[in-house]
């Protein structure tokens, strides 16, 4: 067995046998599900009903407010406002809506008040405004002698159909689906880099702290050790991801079969309605499924593999050289920030720029820059990227990777034998010239 | 006799700092070679270059007649001063791994390990993790790992630190036995008594330069002072002192003895030991007569503080 293979094997076994690896692999999906269930449970919980007092001098609007689970509206037009305001302060009511009597009603829009202790939510205020607006508009129509029913009938509600030049119907929300798919791959790459890059760094620090490093590098080249570590750790990571994927698929299979039975059971109550709904849903769902299958799935998967390898290797060589430069994890912080930044930048550009303009200048440039390309390009690919762009971006990525590995290996080689001093950026640069 | 290692004019600089300044050494085959020097003299830099951990800026290293090349890592066994093993790895697996990195096949490594574990009576440790062992126990493992692949050249940096006297002796015997079987040994240490006891060649590096090198006995001859320790029983101390001071330089000294005699350290100058003896026997009963041989410790301190 070659030395590199020996090192890879040792690193892989050391990672996989580690208790925290085993715990992480099997516990974190559980944790993930638990958090999901918890959030789901929280969202089904209802907030306490709040009571809003309405003092409507005009008497026009008070009946327009309908109490619901969240808000209860009380008509207190007969109580004077002074008492009402006091009772607000004593927290008897959540708030007081004050509508003065004005004739004509033209100046009313600026005279309505809402009094409360806590500032109300924007949504709530908008709801109040729209209720009053609707009523006032209708009143105005009446005053102008317009036929309200005719106006209602005349209101149109359009929805633009999207069609591609190639003639197929395009679907709304497809961009969201595309960014979700691209984002999932990009995010996966980022998470992998951060988790396993850190693991590489810790493993380098461990060898330094335990002082075995000198024994090892009297047998192998530091470069071999570094690469072995990076590859071995990534294999452990891939194993973990594969276990998660299998667990996830199994869970989905089990859940959907349980879910399917449940639908069958409830359908008896309102079978017809469910059926029509399903047909409608099925119609557009089929279109969506068709669209998703039309995505460049092959390109996505193949580029994912390349960007994954390139991105991970690029970043983990950074992590390895940082591990070599410091004596303990605390000292690594100052060097880690510049590494995390491009990753975060990539994710932000992906979610804000790519979705708006997948082939714009910003998105294109950042899908070429090697530090962000694995994330940004993965998000762009579902929107259809010319092959030459992917090729250029990959060539740049792997060229940078080679350059960085060469540089990192130099820092690594010097750093692993340096103890006791916290290096500066300047010193790291000096080491690369030794 | 050919040489196992020749270091030729090796220079190593770290930035502005010169760690080794044209250092040349010759380590004869089959020798136990003491590499001495105060802290920071450049010993570790030199050892790392021999182990190909770092490269010299200029100069050459010849190992067993060939210029140093990557395959030579299999021919060298190195125990660094700062010992280290993977703390959470099991002893057996760890030894196998390190032996395979030194070029042994798994089967060979297993065979050698069985031999050494047997020999050092540590068979029961195979499945223990290093962190469960005491420091001395871990040191034994470290020693086994260093010699497992039967290196031609063994480089030991402070090999006895961390051992209790019993185990230090055990390891010393193993080192001598390996040397008897033909392994050349470079010994870097501050413990002068073990140099005195075990080494037949020494070199002294100080402030990046080699100051002394050679056969231990030759070096001692070079540093001989022509001083003799003398013990004599006499009734006429004044007469004796007068006679002696005519020809020699005298100074009082002390050594262990059972008699209540006059103890002197006498520098011969240009005279021979017999002339001194003649003078002495005429005046009394000689109980002690010995050349004062410089110890490695004396040589070390004298050279370094010069």
Structural write-up:
The complex is a heterodimer of chains A (434) and B (306). Chain A contains 15 helices and four strands. By secondary structure, chain A is mostly helical. In chain A, helix 10 (297-325) packs antiparallel against helix 13 (373-380). The longest helix of chain B has 16 residues, at 165-180. The model of chain B has no long low-confidence stretch (mean pLDDT 87). With 306 residues, chain B is of the alpha/beta class. Chain B has a six-stranded mixed β-sheet, sandwiched between helices. Chain B has a four-stranded antiparallel β-sheet with strand order 2-1-4-5, covered by helices on one side. In chain B, strand 9 (201-206) and strand 10 (209-215) form a beta hairpin. Chain B folds into two domains: 3-221, Rossmann fold (3-Layer(aba) Sandwich); 224-293, Alpha-Beta Plaits, CATH 3.30.70. The radius of gyration of chain B is 24 Å and the shape is elongated. Classes of the chains: A mainly alpha (434), B alpha/beta (306). Chain A binds chain B through residues 1, 3, 6-7, 10, 14, 18, 207, 210-221, 413, 417, 430, 434, and chain B through 14-15, 48, 51-54, 70, 73, 76, 78-80, 82-89, 97-98, 100-102, 142, 145.
Content of β-strand of chain A: under 5%
Main-sheet strand order of chain B equals 6-7-8-3-9-10
List SSEs of chain A in N-to-C order: HHEEHEEHHHHHHHHHHHH
Number of strands of chain A: 4
Number of domains of chain A: 2
**What is the element string of chain B, with H for helices and E for strands?**
EEEHEEEHHHEHEHEEHEHEEHEH
Radius of gyration based on Cα positions of chain B = 24 Å
Alpha-carbon distance between the two ends of chain B: 34 Å
Low-confidence stretches of chain A: 263-269
Largest sheet of chain A: 4 strands, mixed
Query: Structural class, from secondary structure content of chain A?
Result: mainly alpha
| Spatial order of strands in the largest sheet of chain A | 2-1-3-4
